[in-house]
Amino acid sequence: MDKIATPKNTKEMVSKYDFHFSKSLGQNFLTDYNIIEKIIRGAGITKDTNVIEVGPGIGSLTQGLLEAGKKVVAVEIDKKLIPILQDTLKDYENIKVINEDVLKLNLNQMVMDEFDGGDIKVIGNLPYYITTPIIMKFLEDKVPVESIIIMIQKEVADRMNAKPGKKDYGALSVAVQYYCTTEIITVVPPTVFIPQPKVESSVIKLNVLKEPSVKVEKESLFFSVVKDAFGKRRKTLLNALSSGNLQLNKDMVREVLQKCEIDEKRRGETLSLQEFANIANEVNKRLL
Ligand code: SAM
Fold first, then answer.
1. Which of 19, 52, 1, 29 is nearest to 196 (CA)?
2. d(CA 219, CA 88)
């Protein structure tokens, strides 16, 4: 069948079904098949790849995934898009559309029900405000996926990809890089979407690690330390950690930092994941 991802076909479908774009659901549809091919190549989709697509819209990216991959389970929250997807994807047998909010699904159960194991990738062109919760749900629930490839606002992709000492490095960089290695696949201009968003987007690939990148005794404490360290950006590590939500004793923080050979005047944004892990593990020993 014809490519869905052209400006002409997108406009035709939208008017045939009298569809109204919802800003709050972040509905901007891709209209350039070259970008779709780039995403699919970068993601490494082959005939052996099972795909979970979050937010298929009218099926523009889904069509490419169905042609390149094995089976696609597409989760779409907007029920007005379901009849459109049934129309645009009617020639494909390897598709299952689920009309649900992805954040409300039991993803591990879905994977067991829909796939026969093997290589599973998550793909989505996502609205900015739910990107982080969706990614963290896949990672924290330890859904057995090999990688997560998402198109998001460029600025958010840069934060996920940032290394210590860089201006974009923050709690989101640490959270993502605890579970994954990251790579930017491509930058996408607003002109390839209908309607056009205000900002540039990036496609980022998160390769999920078998084990977290650093060894942490207590994950919740590790993430609390990270949050406190970045909470007060202009504060030294000693002050940030002793005045944050954890309410750690200042002498104890000083002792921990000395033990970890970390200068107490450094700021959170200069610390590597290993250094955060060392601090959290030393704090954990003292709180036991
Ligand atoms: N993949 C299509 C494309 O590239 O043209 C559509 C992308 S559009 C930026 C985002 C899609 O995600 C919309 O179809 C929207 O309805 C859907 N969506 C938003 N929040 C969602 C959620 N919580 N669960 C599932 N789908 C969601």
1. 29
2. 44
What residue spans of the chain are helical by DSSP H?
7-16, 33-43, 60-68, 82-88, 107-114, 128-140, 154-161, 171-179, 219-231, 237-242, 250-259, 273-287
CA of 73 to the centre of ligand 1 (A): 13
Roughly how many angstroms between the first and final C-alpha of the chain, as a whole number?
Answer: 63
The finding on whether 101 has its CB within 6 A of some atom of ligand 1 is yes
Give CA–CA dist 23/77, Å, rounded.
13
**In angstroms, rounded to a whole number, what is the distance separating the alpha carbons of residues 243 and 231?**
10
Residue 1 has pLDDT above 70, yes or no: no
- 124 CA closest ligand 1 atom index: 1
| Domains of the chain as residue ranges with CATH | 7-208 (3.40.50.150), 219-287 (1.10.8.100)
pLDDT per residue over 142-184, tens digit each?
999 999 999 999 999 999 999 999 999 999 999 999 999 999 9
Please state the φ and ψ torsions of residue 181, each to the nearest 5 degrees.
-95, 155
Q: pTM of the entire structure?
A: 0.94
What's the gap in Å between 176 CA and the centre of ligand 1? 21
Residue (of 152, 146, 217, 218) closest to 179 by Cα position: 146
* CA nearest neighbour of 140 among 103, 170, 112: 103
Place of tokens 């949050």: 227
Q: Which residues pair with 202 in a beta bridge?
A: 152, 187
Q: Distance between CA atoms of 83 and 111, rounded to whole angstroms?
A: 24
- In angstroms, the CA 151 to CA 157 distance is 8
Q: Residue 204: name the closest of 140, 133, 269, 131 by CA.
A: 131
Banded pLDDT at 60 (limits 50, 70, 90): very high
